[in-house]
Structure formats: C-alpha cells, structure tokens
Amino acid sequence: MLEHGGRLQRAAREYGIPRERWLDLSTGISPFGWPVPPLSTEAWRRLPEDDDGLVEVARDYYGACHVLPVAGSQAAIQALPRLRRPSRVGVLAPGYAEHAQAWERAGHAVQRLPIDALRATADTLDVVVLIHPNNPGGERFDRAELLALHASLSARGGWLVLDEAFMDVTPEHSLCDVADRDGLIVLRSVGKFFGLAGARAGFVCAAPALLDALHEQLGPWTLSGPTRQVLREALADRAWQAWARTHLREQGERLARLLVTRGLPPAGGCALFQWCRCDVASVLHAALARRGVLVRLFDTPFSLRFGLPGDEAAFERLDRALDEALHEVRR
Amino acid sequence: MLEHGGRLQRAAREYGIPRERWLDLSTGISPFGWPVPPLSTEAWRRLPEDDDGLVEVARDYYGACHVLPVAGSQAAIQALPRLRRPSRVGVLAPGYAEHAQAWERAGHAVQRLPIDALRATADTLDVVVLIHPNNPGGERFDRAELLALHASLSARGGWLVLDEAFMDVTPEHSLCDVADRDGLIVLRSVGKFFGLAGARAGFVCAAPALLDALHEQLGPWTLSGPTRQVLREALADRAWQAWARTHLREQGERLARLLVTRGLPPAGGCALFQWCRCDVASVLHAALARRGVLVRLFDTPFSLRFGLPGDEAAFERLDRALDEALHEVRR
Q1: What DSSP element (H or E) covers A92?
Q2: Do B1 and A220 touch (CB under 8 A)?
Q3: Which stretches of chain B are assigned E, i.e. beta strand?
C-alpha cells in the first residue's frame, strides 16, 4: 500500500514539536470547511438507506444525470480497474499515485506519462486516467480536447477516467454534465472543497450500467449514516458554496502572491494549493519543518506543495518561516 | 446485489402508515445504543489516521492480538473471498445471505448447508463459514468443536470464518482470543450491540499476514474520522458495556417470555432477537404490519424474527398487536 497521512504525526516526532503547534499546509484540504451542525442520533443508530435523498441532492450539485456515492474517490480508484479485462492504461504523471497503482494491482499494463507523451500515445491505449486539475502540478485540459479524447477511446470500448477531486472551485470546467456518455467516468470528492476529508465520501458520475457494476463491486452501505446526513446538507447549501468559491479563489491568489514575493513563483496549482519547483526542495522542506510549518515534498521533480493557510496569523507565520528558511538555505 | 434495508420505508408506503409511527423490530440492532457525544470538528476535517489509538482499544475490547478495522463486517465479507484461489466453500444456512453470495461472486464453489450437513461434509471443504451465534436461528457451537474444525481445515491450508456479529453479549464464547492462529478469521461488528449500525464499522481478528492482505485489498481510510472517534470511546467504555450486557439479556428474556405467552415460543435467538417458526408467518407478518409493527419475515423455513422493543410502551404495543394479529390470523 502507498504511504498516506500520518505525516503530521511523524513530523511531530521527528522535529520534536507537539502536534497542536504545527501549521499543517501538507494537504489540499480547504481550511474553510463546511460548518458541520450537530447530528441526529438516528444517523448513528440505523443502517444507512439508499433512498434518503442524497443521490438527488448530489445530481443537482454535480449537474450529472447519474451519480453513485462512494467511500471517497479512493474506493472508486480501487474498484474501477476490477471492472475491465487486462487493458493498456495511461495515467498522467506526476499525479495522485494511487491511480496507477490500483490499475497495476488489478493486472493491467500501466504507463505513467507526462501530458505530452500521454497525448502522443493515446491511440494505443484502452484507458486514460487524468487528474483534472492535476495534483500537484495543477495542469488543466480543454473541454474540446477531453471530449475528443473520450470519443476516440469510447469508440473502441475504452474509458476516459477524470479525477476531478479539485474541481469544485471551477465547476464550469467539469465534465460531469456529459458523464452519462459510455466510457466517460468522472470522480468527485467532498474532502477538499468542503473540508470533509474525515467523512470519506465521494461520487462517481458515469453511465448507469457502469455505476451498477461499480455498486455491485463495492457492496451496500459504503457511506456511514452521519456522513450521508452531512452531505445531504452540505451539497444543498448553495449560499455557502458560492461564498467558499470566492473566498478560496482570493486566498489561493494571496498564497501565490506570497510565494512570488518570497522568490518561489508557483509553477502551477489551483485555489486549494500552489506548487513550486525548487532544486533545494528537500532542504527547504526541512527548514520549514524546524519552524513548525509542514508542506508537502515531491521529488520527481523536486518541488513543494503549499496548502492554504486558514487565517491571517497562518499567512503571517508562513511568510516569516519562509523568509527565515530561505535565508538559511541560501546562506 | 441482495436486497437490504429500506424495509421500513417500503412498509410505510405499502401500509400507508407514516414512517415515524412504526414500531420497527425488523433488525437485530440494539435499541439501547451507546450514547454518542458531540464530535470534534477535527474528525470531519482531517483524513483519518491509522495510528489514532483505535486499534489498541479494539485489541483490548475483543481480546485479540491483531485486529483490522473495516467498514462493517460487510466489507470483510466481500473482500475475503478475493484472497483465495477457487475453493470449496461451505456456508451455514439459513444464515446471513451475503456470505454465500460473496464467495460465489468471487468464483468459489459454494454449498449452503444446515449445520448437520456442514459437519458431515467439512472434510471435503476448504473454507467453512459459520455465523455464531447464527442469525436468525441463534444456533451456537461448542468451543472445542470449533477449534477441532479449525485445526482440520487449517492443516490443509483451509479457513474457518466465524461471523460473530451478535457475540458481544456473550464474549466468553468468542474465538477472538485464538484468532491469531493461521486460517481462523473472526468478524466482529459494532452495529448490533453498540447500536451503531450507521457507523459502518467492524473488525477482523486474524493472523497478521491475512490482515495485511485484507488491508491491501480494502485500501486506506475505510472508516470515517467521526466513526473512528466514536469507536475509540465506545469500545473503551467498560461500564456502559457491562450495563448493556445485563440489560440486553434481561430484555431478551422478557421478549422470549412475551412470545411464549402469546403462543409463539421462540425456536432460537439471542439477546438481540428471538426467532419463531410459524406456518402462517407471512399472514402474521402482514397482520402486524397493518398495526404498524414491523418484524422480519423469512420463508425457508417460514418464520419471523423479532428485534428488541426499546421501552415499556414498545413492549406493550408489541404484545397488543400480537394478540390482535394472532386472533385475526387464527379466525
């Protein structure tokens, strides 16, 4: 299994700084999450029911004809490869590593390709997996290009899988509205934009036959009752969503400006994170960690991903830590 | 997929009685569930972490050396058959139907057998699946018999799978304490005894290599953050557990006495439900439903399962409804 989470716990041990004193910018989860109200006891007591209204609310929110709730995109990422015979699969790289691993584990022939190579070899592939916008690079794709790629894949029984985990701030770029086409599969997550990573919930938008097969594969009751209750309210809360989109965009731009000012202009990103290539990424990561600021380190290519600071004090703390750390690194 | 849940919703439509006016005795979930306190927002916000202390608390509660938290026994029931090459599998029947279906779906040769036939053919099987105590019949097995069966199966690379979803009231009969033996796999659920069916959580007790393979199959973050928080507290709450065991035993006996008095002596059961064979089960089920009392109907053999009424008024309502319904049926 790939390593996940527990980074804050480990950093706390490694740098001898108690957990609660860190500024954790190592994720792409919004620090301005949907405010969860107290829950009904009923949600804990009873088995969750499929006809509780969640699917209807999700269809509206995603603008998709057909949706299947799943226990996080991760559940779909693991199950989708089991629904195809051995295929030639191209996965955008670097990107969220679980995709390629899940397809490999299910016995497919997987190529991890940068976007240009992926475009060039698409004709020889049965399945193309794109993260859109990409994580950590933030690459985006043209709607027309994606539709053409899908048409070419589906004409020969192939799939285009789009992981739109970071799409909620820019829903106008989503392909959920056409995900009822055979061979187009869009994954959405409530972890990032809604700040509900602990809820373990996401949705798959696709044609009904694919969703039925996926449902059969995943089994009944994949979401907890409290999660279903929270989602029914969060996905319907249009006023909060509009506020969050504007606020995240502003805060994302503010983070990008801060990084530019400190001499680390982002090479990419989206509202929820900024990504900076940097030859001394590893040393800088450690220098920030010694100051209790945790960011995410990547090594191919050497780079750092900065999640959003959640308030004024957090922005100031990042700015100061970055100033000191860069001085130390460049000394 | 087998049909599950939504029975109350359907009964409400079919009998024209609003949902909130039913006495729902159609499940084996305790009506005296663990009292869930308000949750920290943090549990919703962050990705759940494996090293949050849940595993240690669960080891203590189950008295097992090694445990894996899973999204309900159901998740384990679906994943276990994928960890073996095609095998000859015997499943106790009648019993919880998902077991046999999951083994069949994964390509195994499945026989559904009553206990005597299962005993007689165990030598020809690679895997034996028992629900202990059984649902709905409440059959129990001798520890010595189970250990002998396991020894014989494991000696030839086989498995004994014990679904102990209803074992919490009688932990002295559990085999969790020896589940570190190769080929012994015990499934536990927090849905019934703790009244947390909405949490979608259970535990598998088995040898470390099996648990590693299962973890790999199920992937990361299978439990939500709020569920992990609730379980850490509920599994450690020894005072509540002791109270619940005593109370459930008393209420189970009270339910059995009520059924005897009304001329429906239980053929089996456990503290959380009583099971009555009855030639007119189907008609009686409908007569109770017309009175807003929902019980679970089985047709092989014709029988009804009664869950526990949750208070004095519920006991009285069941008693009255049963009296009227039996008069109607026997007229």
Answers
A1: strand A88-92
A2: yes
A3: 23-24, 67-70, 88-92, 109-113, 127-131, 159-163, 184-189, 202-205, 268-270, 273-277, 293-294, 296-299, 302-307
**Angle between the N-to-C axes of helices B7-15 and B281-290, in degrees from 0 to 180, rounded to the nearest 10:** 70
Pairing of strands B127-131, B88-92: parallel
Instruction: Give the span between the Cα atoms of A17 and A8, in whole angstroms.
Output: 10
- Quick check: A210 and A83 in contact, CB under 8 A? yes
CB A54 within 8 A of CB A229: no
Instruction: Look at residues B158, B132, B164 and name the one whose alpha carbon lies nearest to residue B145.
Output: B132
Q: How far apart are CA B28 and CA B312, in angstroms?
A: 18
Helix (H, G, I), strand (E, B) or coil at A53: coil
Separation between Cα atoms, residue A89 and residue A111, nearest integer Å:
6
Tokens of B140: 């129990």
Q: Using the 8-state DSSP alphabet, how is residue A329 labeled?
A: H
A45 touches chain B (CB under 8 A): yes
Give which of B192, B200, B230, B272 to mutate to test A binding, by max A Cβ within 10 Å. B200
| pLDDT at residue A4, as a whole number | 55
From A5, A78, A225, residue closest to B47, measured CB to CB = A5
- Please check the confidence at residue A89 and state whether its pLDDT lies above 90: yes
Taking the C-alpha atoms of residue B308 and residue B329, their distance in angstroms, rounded to an integer, is 23
Residues 200-219 of B with CB under 8 A from A: 200-201, 215-216, 219
What phi and psi values does residue B291 have, to the nearest 5 degrees?
-100, 10
For the residues B195-218, what does the mean pLDDT come to? 96
The shortest C-alpha distance from A47 to chain B (Å) reads: 5
Kindly report, residue by residue over A235-268, the tens digit of the pLDDT: 999 999 999 999 999 999 999 999 999 999 999 9
Residues 6+ apart with CB under 8 A from A261: none
Torsion sign over Cα B69, B72, B77, B82:
negative
Strand order in the sheet with B302-307: B268-270, B273-277, B302-307, B296-299
B219: which DSSP letter? -
Write the CB contacts of A110 (distance below 8 Å, at least 6 apart in sequence).
A89, A90, A91, A100, A103, A104
SS3 B3: coil
Query: DSSP string covering B137-166, please?
Result: T-----HHHHHHHHHHHHHTT-EEEEE-TT
pTM of the predicted structure, to 2 decimals: 0.94
Q: CB of A199 within 8 A of CB of A207?
A: no
pLDDT at B4 > cutoff 80: no
Name which of B221, B198, B230 is nearest B46 in CA terms.
Answer: B221
Give the pLDDT band of residue B1 (cuts 50, 70, 90).
low
Q: What is the pLDDT of residue B86?
A: 97
Q: Does residue B2 have a pLDDT over 70?
A: no
Residues A151-170, mean pLDDT to the nearest whole number: 97
Q: ipTM of this complex > 0.90? A: yes
